[in-house]
Amino acid sequence: MPYDTVDRGKIEQMVREFYTIVLKDDILSPIFVKALGDDLTNGKWYEHLNTLYNFWMQMMTGLSPYQGHPFPPHAFLGPLTEEHFERWLKLFHETVYRLFVPEIADKFYKKANILAEQFMDNLGINDEDEDEDY
Question: At what angle are helices 82-99 and 8-22 packed, to 10 degrees?
Answer without folding.
Answer: 140
